Amino acid sequence: MHTSGRHLYDACGERVVLMGVNHPTLYVDRAGAAMSEIARTEANAVRLFWWAQNGVAITEAQDAVAAAIANGMFPMLEMHDATGPGSWGNMDAIVDYWTSPEAVSFIARHQQYLMVNIANEAGPSQGQGYDDFENVYRNAITRMRNAGIRVPLVIDASGWGRDYQVLFDKGAALIESDPEHNLVFSAHLYDPLNRSQIANVLQTAVDMDLPFIIGEFANRAPNGFCGPDIDYSGIIAEANARDIGWLAWSWGDDSADSWWNSDCWEFDMTGTLSFDTLERWGLEVAVTDPESIQNNAVRSKFLIEGSCQ
Fold it and tell me: What is the pLDDT of residues 175-226, one digit of tens each?
């Protein structure tokens, strides 16, 4: 997969607009059993939660990654252990993990489908440390490319993923620093923006010709326990209008793993990880809203057939 301008393309050169969900892979579903349930939404992508520093080998993600591909979804594997301010120091260990021989081999095995989200929400608070952000990610990109990793590298905004301005300020320089010129920038839209503000953020990315996605969003802000309402229907409508990809947070199980979304139990889109238990806002963004996954996601020929013939 590769980017050109602001768009992502599959191995056959067909343009891809990512549309799918986040999934709590490491803790509740390393076997990827839920991939077939997620696929019933007709999603074309799934972001898979992983952790670099818990002693779990990357090869244990094999089943979930393979299940995503087998069910017609591009997997995006992400490392969650540099999340938020104060975790910046974990970046070296994360890049060590990505550049280990086992990880490089794993990525190469799946490179026609796989995207690598370097670190979830790493970096300082909003509006801070933009030069550090560029330098840390420039180093990570260099190390990963030198290790032989060629897939799209996804870079989250700092400030708990919300500081999209750092992506606008530093995105072009980071692309220039990447010998593959193959980066995707991801903002997590958890601030209670109105429809006009959402449109302005997304249009800025379009005007900059920046490869940009909404890597996380939900129905509420995670400020304390279930913070202010988020205009999730506005997010998906404005993104769809601009061919900007989005991934809802998250395909969790509110009857068995409520701890997973401790910021707000409502973030769990399903009751039991099954399609038939989609509920509330999760049902809307996955199926019933006119702008939903099921009504808008497109699976490319390569994703369906595995070839360009």
Answer: 999 999 999 999 999 999 999 999 999 999 999 999 999 999 999 999 778 9
- Of 203, 210, 192, the closest CA to residue 238 belongs to 203
Which tokens in the block code for residue 24?
């709590």
CA distances from 220 to 17, 25, 223 (A): 24, 22, 9
Convert the pLDDT of each residue in 262-291 to its tens digit. Answer: 788 899 999 999 999 999 999 999 999 999
Q: Sign (positive/negative) of CA torsion 45, 142, 163, 16? A: negative
Residue whose structure tokens are 């974990």: 90
Number of neighbours of residue 194 by Cβ within 10 angstroms: 10
Q: Which pair of tokens denotes residue 225? A: 């326990």
What are the residue ranges spanned by the domains of the chain?
2-305
In what side-by-side order are the strands of the sheet with 2-4?
2-4, 7-9, 15-16
Nearest to 209 by CA among 152, 167, 177: 167
CA distance 46 to 35: 8
Pairing relation of β-strands 7-9 and 2-4?
Answer: antiparallel
**What superfamily does domain 2-305 belong to in CATH?**
Glycosidases (3.20.20.80)
Q: Cis peptide before 274, with omega less than 30 degrees from 0?
A: no
Among the listed residues 1, 3, 5, the one whose alpha carbon sits nearest the alpha carbon of residue 207: 5
Give the pair of three-digit tokens for residue 279: 């509920």
Cα distance from N-terminal residue to C-terminal residue, the chain? 17
Angle between helices 91-98 and 101-109 (to 10 degrees): 60
Q: Residue 14 carries which side chain, given as an amino acid letter?
A: E
Residues ≥6 apart with Cβ < 8 Å to 31 = 63, 64, 67
- pTM above the 0.90 mark? yes
C-alpha count within 13 angstroms, C-beta hemisphere, residue 167:
31
Nearest 10 degrees: Cα torsion 284, 289, 294, 298: -130
Between CA 155 and CA 122 the distance in angstroms is 9
